[in-house]
């Protein structure tokens, strides 16, 4: 099966397709008898914040991809580790593809060009072998040779297995179902909504040269990432919610790190 583009046909990556189907089916086992407990739900919510909030939003995105602020290297590695637990690929691939997205937002070379429809920008793009994948090394020279990032890139899947074993020892199968599979799928779709919904729904505060929008409900699900038009207008700003009503929990976390003396050289949007 292939998907036609303006100048080529893309092959499905059957390994990714199989993994996505398996993860979603595993998450559905949460509805089977014996897999529910409120403590398991609590573990899921906590790990959603750790992996999606601290890991993807703060770590992979604002800290590593855009260098919106700086933290001590060990703390940077911690946030990168949290992002690795999201199972959205290794940090090198994630950062590289996102930088390519910003360079070509909503044009043909954009890996998740929203002009190709909601399905493509939400999940379809990652199920295929993309030309952009060959460009990742060129866009990640700042982290590509770092042995810690290389380790996280190579072993992100075994790391998840270790987390699953730990959760099983603590709380049995319910902790695994909710803490790994339900949480993983929830973080998947929350992150993907930033690629899809925030290029389709919401309002625009700035002319950013693409279709990015500010979408309040995506912002609530993604710790502030839904203020996407603001972000595309000011890519290197650590704060995405620029108006008082645009709640940005990740910016609040960065402010806390600033207060503790852990976040420095924080970049903000220029005043218009």
General description of the model:
The protein has 272 residues and is mainly α. The chain has one domain. It has helices spanning 14-28, 38-65, 73-84, 91-103, 118-122, 136-139, 147-196, 216-221, 228-233, 249-259; strands spanning 2-4, 9-11. The chain has a two-stranded antiparallel ribbon with strand order 1-2. The chain is globular, with a radius of gyration of 18 Å.
Topology, element by element:
Layout: E1 2-4, E2 9-11, H1 14-28, H2 38-65, H3 73-84, H4 91-103, H5 118-122, H6 136-139, H7 147-196, H8 216-221, H9 228-233, H10 249-259
Helix pairs in contact: 1-7, 2-3, 2-4, 2-7, 2-10, 3-7
Major beta sheet summary: 2 strands, antiparallel
Cα(first) to Cα(last) distance is: 48 Å
Number of helices: 10
Mean pLDDT: 95
Question: What oligomeric state do these chains adopt?
Answer: single chain
Number of strands: 2
The structural domain count equals 1
Helix fraction, binned, reads: 55-70%
- Spans of 5+ residues with little confidence (pLDDT < 50)? 1-7
Report the principal-axis shape. Answer: globular
Strands of the widest sheet, in order across it, are: 1-2
Helical/strand content category: mainly alpha
Strand content: under 5%
C-alpha Rg (nearest Å): 18 Å
- Series of H and E elements: EEHHHHHHHHHH
Keywords for this entry:
mainly alpha, 10 helices, globular
Short note summarizing the structure:
Helices cover about 55% and strands about 0% of the residues. The protein has about 270 residues and is mainly alpha-helical.
